[in-house]
Design goal:
InterPro entries: Tox-REase-7_dom. The chain has two domains: 254 residues; 95 residues, no CATH class. The chain contains nine helices and six strands. The strands form two sheets. It has a four-stranded mixed beta sheet, sandwiched between helices. A two-stranded antiparallel sheet has the order 1-2. Strand 3 and strand 4 form a beta hairpin. It is elongated.
Length: 491
Amino acid sequence: MGSSEHTLGVCGVTDVDPQWYFDAATAVRAVSVNLANGLTDLQNKLNVANSAGNHMSAGHTWATKYDQAASDVFEAISLTSMAADNLGAMIHAAGAERVRVQNTNSPGKPDVDVPALPPGGGLEMSIHPPFRSTGGLNDPPENWDLIEGIVSKKWADCDVDKIRIAGESWMASYRGIQDAQLSLSWTPNDTPDAPAEVAKINTAVANIVTMLEKSTQWSIAIGHACNSVQAKSDSTRQSITGFLSTMKFMLATLNTGSSGPAGQMNETIAKERAKLDTAEWVDVKLEELDKAVQSTTDEKFTMINTAPSSMTTPTENVTTAVGKYLTPLLGREARPQVPVQGNQRNRARGNEGERRAGIDPATGKQRIYPQNPVGKPKYRIPDGRNDVTKQITEVKNVNDIKSKDSKQIIDEANWAAQNGYTMTLVTDHRTVLSQDVQKLVSEGKITVVQMELDENLVAGPVQPTLPDPSPTNPAPVRSPDGIGPMGVPAR
């Protein structure tokens, strides 16, 4: 398929119709466009700010695991779109070379024109979700004040409607990825003895298809996790609200107006017993919610951001998948986790990290004044502050969090807690957290999201290349009778 009836100037190499190259370039560049547009659409639908809830541990667990998984999958799809763009350009260039060769070998005939390179998605860096899910509604139900101080856990103030909509949006997103895959109107070229790049193109497109399949699986996992957490959170909130209403009714029935110290004491004891029983029931329901959210995130997000070596059944997470299938097409290792050497570009790296983390450079930064700061400065300046969602963001595009950075992060986290804000620390994938920062995470005082803040190109940009053919899917070879697998005569 796609071969011509003559050989190239190279002995034993069968020519391939240039149109096959141009069709393949158009197909993969169209996938890039669909992925980029799909991510932008998903961005517009995912308003998850203040949806996780402030309760420990369910709210903190969900904010930590969901925000990281969402960022990872956004990066995977973005990188696939960029790789498809590069691949389309390389295939188109190979087709142009075939046209040049054929024109050279066809004297006296009109030259064949090369079509324009089809448009691509045009992404230059990964797109990320626009909102963090940290924070909650601060909407304690009626009568919660009667057990406050008795119940050991915080009210589950998650926004179940936002979590539900997020789940629906992720499920719609996976269908969009499937549509992009199904629309890939491209057929591998199995011409025997074709030019060397043909087998590489076959492998490269197969790698893009693999990433589409994996991105579909990851998107489904997030969608299912949202649906599960939303359903459990909603039922928990309703159950607790019902407990509190029942308690209120019981307290009213205990207002017997008993006379005398003994009667009044018995009435007081009965009321306190009702409150204690209700608080115990509420704690049980909230503990069940904690376990359910932990179980759901462990089950659904393991395939996205857990290292394969730590899995019971190893599989490829986002980092290993993009490294395996996209590295040549991107011209670099995506999501590098090795330290950056040298410190000559620290300021530039910091600015680039903020840009990739979604910090608007046009928005002026504001000072905050934590009580009893652990660092020398009396004020801190977080990289991002949103007074509507009551979230602050600190970005650290560094190899590791030093003592000075830790003190800054502690001060900002304390200020956030003192003022009803939540804090997210955004780091690069290579960043190693200090023990002090890890303690803040374990205590639920901050969440951490790792993303590609730096491409770690110490030696400068590297040109994208076609991958070597997969050894499990080698280029077609001639059969002993001299007829190729598609019936193309051997030459």
